[in-house]
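Hi C.,

You asked whether I'd gotten around to modeling the 289-residue construct. I have! Everything is below, sequence then structure, no commentary in between.
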Amino acid sequence: MDNFVYHPETDKQIKNYISKPLHALLIQGHKGSGKSTLLNLMAASVLGLEQSKLINYPHVMMISPDDKNKIAIDVVRNIDHFLSLSVPGAQNKINRVILIDNADQMTTEAQNALLKHLEEPPVNTIFMLSVTNTTMILPTLLSRTFTLRLRQPTRNSLIDMLIGQGYNEVDVKRAIGLSGGLPGLALAILNGSDSHPLSKASAMARTIISSSRYQRLILVNDLTKDLQLLTNTLEVIELMASAAIERSKAEQVPKWQHILTITYQTKNNLLKNSNIKLNITRFMLALGQ
């Protein structure tokens, strides 16, 4: 667990859970917050394994969304077969883990299929889920899990961790600013990785913030056609603005407060299913010259 950094309160909850694991854990955090990494780290820790050995460990089942970004009921039903397999060794400790990454992408049918296992927990087995949006999880499912909300680490602790991993201080501070303080996204930026779910949105956010009004308006059509990219981009801009307000000089704060306000307003308008193209156009114009 030493190769990642967490907010002190989150770190306390992690240690408490590992010392006394409950039958079902749900980790909730922003995209890019590192919740998938934490999911694997905690599973390895509970089982007494090195994280690198987790993926090939026979008594760990890993579930994640398919190419359509869904987790279907058939996948969850495979848990029945997994649980039917015998596990050698001590019978008085956790020896089997089921990991469900991005569990908020489970269909309602899949969630109901999972619910029966949480209502009657198998012996010596724990379920560990990660989600971005808890409103996508059935209340009956939520009520049977211990929820750990992944709070962002302080900027200084994140800087120290990344520098400690060998990254240049200037690059680290830039990556943290561009990621809005999200550890997973900051690492992706430092490594030049496009595989992170917010990498494309982060690049789009940087383009929007640094472009002229005319250049931004050119982007409206593309964003209107890709609602996932649009949603992620607004989320990244919101995080960037919040982080910038904390570290900027006094004369720059009003600019970032304005960006934060109009981003928040635009996200709310989109949730109301109002005209997407009109809202994005207004957003691009409101950013200024």
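If it helps when you're writing up: The first strand starts at residue 24 and ends at 28.

Thanks,
B.
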